[in-house]
Amino acid sequence: MLALYCDDNRQVALQELPAPQPAPGEALIRVTLAGICGTDLQILRGYHDFKGVMGHEFVGVVAGPPGSSWLGKRVVGEINVSCGDCDLCRLGMPRHCRTRRVIGIKDRDGAFATYLTLPEANLLAVPLQVEDEAAVFTEPLAAALAAVDAARLPRKSPVLVVGDGRLGLLISWALALSEAQVHLVGHHAEHLSLAEPYGVATFLEKDLPPGDYAAVVETSGAAAGLDLALARVRPTGTVIMKSTYVEPYPLDSANLVVPEVRLIGSRCGPLGPALRLLARGLINHRALIDRRFPLSQGLEALERAQRPGVLKVLLDCGRQPGD
Amino acid sequence: MLALYCDDNRQVALQELPAPQPAPGEALIRVTLAGICGTDLQILRGYHDFKGVMGHEFVGVVAGPPGSSWLGKRVVGEINVSCGDCDLCRLGMPRHCRTRRVIGIKDRDGAFATYLTLPEANLLAVPLQVEDEAAVFTEPLAAALAAVDAARLPRKSPVLVVGDGRLGLLISWALALSEAQVHLVGHHAEHLSLAEPYGVATFLEKDLPPGDYAAVVETSGAAAGLDLALARVRPTGTVIMKSTYVEPYPLDSANLVVPEVRLIGSRCGPLGPALRLLARGLINHRALIDRRFPLSQGLEALERAQRPGVLKVLLDCGRQPGD
Fold first, then answer.
1. What is the pTM of this model?
2. Which of A98, A211, B53, B206 has the smallest count of CB within 10 Å of its CB?
């Protein structure tokens, strides 16, 4: 099968690999569509120490093993593969499993390939009304919803979302759908405009009015975004950190201790609620798609996804050259 | 009156100043005993931008104005002077008042002096059974209790306190008194031994057993303390930051985002519960006292308080040379 493979030296190449064999309890999934995420780009920049098939955002169709009750079903999948047995799994935190592997991120092959394997327990069937181009957003939308939950929404005062990229838009939409007042600040007028139909008040950074916020969600991926978040969070307020930065962030401890601010990391969330939200047709996923590339043009796709201001780049993993 | 005064250039000197005049609604307090705190030492190192009489930990006796119902009462006082009218005061956060002044820390003269003024609304009467040497710990104990509250105690698993200084000891004692299992890690065997009667398990850093903690309270005042806290907090766990550091802390964002850790700043707390705890006689305040100096030897006292490993240094503000 064709796969986008990242080697020890963070060199990515299209490779012909044998199709993976599902272990007992696992399904073989033929990937239909996959999404390129900021984490994939960070892997290329050396942020993670990953070797293998890249990719974790996907929708596909179960193609094996023979006899599986999932055969032929259209699915998305929980990307963390957990042991079910360690203290954290037993405490109900399987996404923090002590020995977790994460497809395309940590110790397990991912979805930028013709085929992928995952434990059947990780699969969720995609409802008919959710098209592939929507279903491929299940994982990032789940992460957005987790950030919304972590923000412990104040109802009476607006929440500030910093960053108008894919995740910033998804989070501001999800916040708005949960009845929050949302302010979104970013650098791209054409992205900001995508939030306005949701009732989100949008601002270029230079136009953000003065004042502070009980909750700020930082999605910008840039240290300047966390600077802004910490400058604008109200005393005793919460900053949700969705972004990671390649360089250490120079944290002024007084910015947390004196105003008694809460800085909360948020990584991913449960897929079910995200899939239900997509099924309600309330997420304008098409507006988030920049371009689709066939998997055979995966390197061009990665290159495009790295350009500033580019929204979601998708890989058609089912489409072969000449299809 | 005599006062320890910090000027524009962070030079501290003993000065003869006129006694302060209480504004309407304020009391004049004759200071009996005052404590030197890490914040005072940070002011000398340029951490805050404070000019005025230093000091915020105190116990004293109300000496004016004539006719005050507080006259002659032994008191401690809330150190934040708030407006009562801004949005944060109205939201019940007077310690975060938009225009707050803080005695000895921010825009208001402090307690290292013969006299101090404070709004009567800030005063708390000290119960008879609380001696001056205990009452002077009300403010730091209140800060310790706030950190305990912020840690949202897990009952089933131990809490780690990093740092065996004054605050680390107070916090570990307060945690133990609230039925938590407490591990305290530090560098001074003689300090660690003060926590053992409270049932706290104590460790020199090199002996801390492996494992992680649902909650860690960092009190060390050193970046290495936060390194340890972040290394030892469990995924989805909480790190309470009590310390501030003069230099920016190089935060690896992945240490918050990937394990979804909560980093929560904590500064100060309400005095009432601290005073009640002192009245119950459960805080071994005498063990925390390193030495008492008369105010006239305030510079020597500050010097001593800066030595590594020194616990609480007190100033006898009521005792005059030759008393």
1. 0.93
2. B206
